[in-house]
Fold this sequence. Notes:
Chain A is of the alpha+beta class and about 375 residues long. Chain A has helices at about 45-50, 95-105, 110-120, 135-150, 165-185, 195-200, 220-225, 230-235, and strands at about 5-15, 15-30, 30-35, 60-65, 65, 80, 155-160, 190, 205-210, 210-220, 240-250, 255, 265-270, 275-280, 285-290, 295-305, 310-315, 320-325, 335-340, 345-350. Chain A has 8 helices and 20 strands.
Amino acid sequence: MDRKLELRALRKSFGDVEAVKGIDLALNRGEFLSLLGPSGCGKSTTLSLIAGFLQPDAGEILVDGKVVNRVSPRKRRIGLVFQDYAVFSKLSVRANLSFGLEAQRVPRLERDRAVAEISEKLNLNPILAARGGELNMSEMQRVALARVLVTKPELLLLDEPMSNLDAALRAKLRGELKQIQKELEQTVLYVTHDQVEALSMSDRIAVMRDGEILQDDSTEAIYRRPAERFVAEFIGDPPINMVTCTVTAEGGVVSVSTALHRNLPLGQGEIAPGQYLLAVRPHHFQASREAAAGTVGSEIRLVENFGAEHVLHVSYGDDLVAVVVAPGFAREGERIHLALHAEQAHLFDLESGQVIALQRREAAA
Amino acid sequence: MTDRSRDGLRPSLDQPRRGFMPRFNIALVLPAQLTMMAVVIVPTLIILWLAITDWQPTQAIPWYDATPVWFWNFYDLWYDERFVNAVGRTLFVVGVCVALELGLALGLALLFLDEWPWRRVAVSIIILPMMIIPVDAANAFFMLFNERGPINHMISLVIGAPFEFSWLSHPTWAMAPIMMAEVWQWTPLMFLLVLTGLMNLPQNQVRAAIVLGASPVRIFFKVMLPLLAPVISIALLIRSIETFKIFDPVYILTRGQPGGSTETISMFMYNGAFVYFRMGYIAAAALLVLVVVISVCLVLARPMTKHS
């Protein structure tokens, strides 16, 4: 594979605070990788290191296989879209777009052609004459993106580019951004704290916390096979349910008992019996009106209406669990029967939060 | 919030309580108003009166009994070469000094934009001249530019021959030490204003320009300078008004001599009012200057009013 970007044991501290604790990350040509994590996890510091605004304390940054630690940010050929877009407010949109090409001394004709092409693609023609300071947020976002794309950067870094937009616009732009990225086969490193953005656009997601990458995997694997409790909890909407459970292992078969469900077989594995955490996505509880084998009755405490689906908050021992159902399925205060798809549930260590590896009988969807 | 204040549950800001408050407000501003009356409005009215008289305190008539000459003072001023030259000279000083101050301040401020050791100490040292009493600063320059002072001494060291030049009594060159004193003393203020402006520029626009591959010169002229324009125009306005009133260095270094060749407007008015005691004539000059200053200010302030 063609490595566009590689980080090797990258480290950065600010005084006593270790912001980035020796991370490794690789990004292939044309790939869309999201660096996902809560605020303060070190993802923006990582971005500044890659762009060259900060110098790492240790480790290497490679672009196209060459170490660029000592290369000035001016020469790295890395495109960067800032969270606040940083559109040059005193320059016209046209001047914004041609700024990078002028700086690289691209001849005028070629420059004009490139600007015309990108403003066509990103629908900027109507505002070419407007000044940067007069634009609204979504126009600024498009200008910031076009200004970078027009220079055909080796690598495009996006720093939470959606956080200043309202929800409806965000959903629309997610699709547009992904489409442009695919069309240009642009290599993208997307930094975000929003798991929906990460899931919907990325080929791969690296989940970061406290300066470390917890899991770096395909989008599918991040969702289906979280390696850490934190990853499981951070990804998915509504959030994953965590219930304490007792594990028994007999003849290699691991079974769990929760406050309501008894002796659910999870899979094969070597594991010490005891207390663990069982993680079940709200979609992996099955709610029914009628009692059946494997179901347990419980009371609905709250119904959240999300339009296309409803989320029931159902008593589960001392806790509540979220269960996704079709709209109009049940009302608050009613009793329903819950089944648990144990083959899609995950077991995490109470102390370390690490996932317990199990061999599943089958990986049914 | 708005709803609550509208339904009358809490007193809203746009409906102040009547009665007690207005009187209290008046009581608060009255001392300031009276002071303004005493030091601005009354003297202005007296000047308006004096400007149409030929009153001189040496005539032993009280000012209110002076004989009106109506607009002859203004007619005389128009043909008074000494006055017209003083106005032109002052405008020249303003233009050159303020431009030099801005150039120096921009250069210095760019140096101080990056973090380097002893930066804070260096800033304190750079702004020291501003804290010195203008008369003292002018006296220092008087000594520096003395015929046998350090400046001539250093020049003779450099050229390797005795150098004696009486800067302060040369009709053309006497203005140079005065302007140098002014620039030396007030570049720090310009520097502080410009540095504050530079430090408050949107950092990401500068960073965006860097990653787009722009050279420092291009970034300065295409990104930073346009963003800095409002700060620069305010700095220019402040310094132009101040420089227009330049007095201390002129008074200390030359008193307008030789032959009135360094006379600025304030020096001209000082000489006219307190050396020749032509109060009525100088009052008319002061009124004219006021008109000039206000016009200059309006022109310089125009970009700012347009901004909002």
